[in-house]
Write the C-alpha cells for this entry.
Amino acid sequence: MVAFLDALETERGASPHTVSAYRRDVSRFQSFLHREGRAIGEVGAGELGRYLGLLHRQGLSTRSIARHLSAVRGLYRFLLRTGRSDRDPTEHLDRARPPRRLPRALSVGQVVALIESSGAPGADGLRNRAMLELLYASGMRAAECVALRVADMNLGAGYLVCEGKGSRQRLIPVGEQAIDRVAAYLDRGRPAHVKGRDPGTLFLSRRGRPLTRQGLWEIIRRASRRAGLARPVSPHMLRHSFASHLLEGGADLRSVQAMLGHADIATTQIYTHLPSSRVRTLYRRFHPRAVGSGPARGTEPGARPAR
C-alpha cells in the first residue's frame, strides 16, 4: 500500500488530503479482506460485492462509497501496472455515481457581514479580516490560503501567485479591499505574530507558526456566529461564493476556471446550474404562479398572461 500511496502523490500530484483519504479507504478494504481470509490478489467479484454491501449496511452515503470504490480501483490498477498482479477484479464493476451536489454559496450581504464580523482590535483581528477578504477576493481553497507566503503577494500589481493541486501555479487578481487589508496586516498585525525566525508564511498563529486549516475553520466559524448567519459557513463556501458572484456579474466561464484552478472546465460548469439572483428576480416577477396562486401581476382576473 505504501508504494501505491507514494505513486499517488508523486505521479498524480494528489494533495495530502486526498492521499490521507485513500490511505483510510484502502486500509478499510484490507481489514475486510483479512476477516474474509483473502489475499489482495485472490479477490473476485464476490468479495467486492460483499464489501460494497458492507459499506451500504454501515450507512455510508453513495458519495462515500464511490470514493471507497475509487480508492480500491486505483489500487488494483497500480498493482496491474507495476506487475504486482495479473488481473484487475474491479474492471467490470459498475461505478457508483454519487448524486450531483450543487455548491452552497452565500449572498453578497452575507459575505460582507461575515468579513466585517471577523475583525477585532489587535493583530489577530487584522489577520482574520485580511484572510477572509483574501479568500473571497481570490476563490482560493483553505489549504492554498494557509500555505500562501508573503513572497506570493504582489500588492502593487494587485495579484497573488497560488500553488494548487498537482503543484500547478496560477496567478489570481486581487481587488483593492483585499489588498488594503493584507497591507494593513503586514504593516501592523503580522510583525506581532512573528516569534523568532520568520517562517515566511503570510498568515501566522499567535505562536508564530503557520496557521493551520483547522485554525482557519475556527476563525470562520466564530465570525459566522457573530454575524448571526443561520447556517454553518466553511472556507469552501467563500470559494463557491466567489465563483457564483463573478458569474452572476457577467464573468466568462473560462476566466473563472483559471482563477479557481480547475483542470477541467466541466468542474467549473456546475456553477452554470445555479440560478443567478437576476434570473430568480425575473422569474418571481413574470411567472404567473411564482407568488401565491393568483393571476400574474399586471393582469386582470381572467386575463391570460402575456406570452
Residues 47 and 53 are 10 Å apart (CA to CA).
